[in-house]
């Protein structure tokens, strides 16, 4: 039984180690969209991207927790979290203060792309034999 536990834990650690590499594209997409919009890069854009990287990895971990289980609780949790984050940080984009506006716009664009991109990197379900 310990050998099986070790294999399961090792497999979970390998899956978790791949997540940051997958989620590293999300801040790049936010940067690309900011560049297309003509925004000048500021310190608060970078700070928002660091937060965005952490949130993207968290979303990926929650959705990878048990890919064989067809429970929709993780999808609901990630979806509600994304909506509340979009509303709270996205409203900062309406601020007249440039620092808050930069942070809010970056988070708005980034969370939207994270929410769209993370499910695409889901692990295929494993068939039990």
Q: Could you name the key traits of this structure?
A:
mainly alpha, 73% helix
Could you please describe the fold and organization of this structure?
The chain has 129 residues and is mainly α. The protein is built from five helices and no strands. It has helices spanning 2-23, 25-36, 43-64, 73-90, 98-117. Helix 2 packs across helix 3 (43-64), helix 2 (25-36) packs across helix 5 and helix 4 (73-90) packs antiparallel against helix 5 (98-117).
Apparent shape = elongated
Q: Determine the fraction of residues in helical runs and give it as a percent range.
A: over 70%
- Give the helix tally: 5
Strand content: under 5%
- Major sheet size, sense and barrel closure: none
Ends distance:
18 Å
The total strand number stands at 0
H/E series = HHHHH
Mean pLDDT: 74
Q: What is the CA-atom radius of gyration, in angstroms?
A: 17 Å
Low-confidence parts, pLDDT < 50 over ≥5 residues?
A: 1-14
Category from helices, strands and their pairing = mainly alpha
Condensed summary:
This protein is mainly α.
List the helices and strands and how they pair.
Blueprint lengths: L1 H22 L1 H12 L6 H22 L8 H18 L7 H20 L12
Helix pairs in contact: 1-3, 2-3, 2-5, 3-5, 4-5
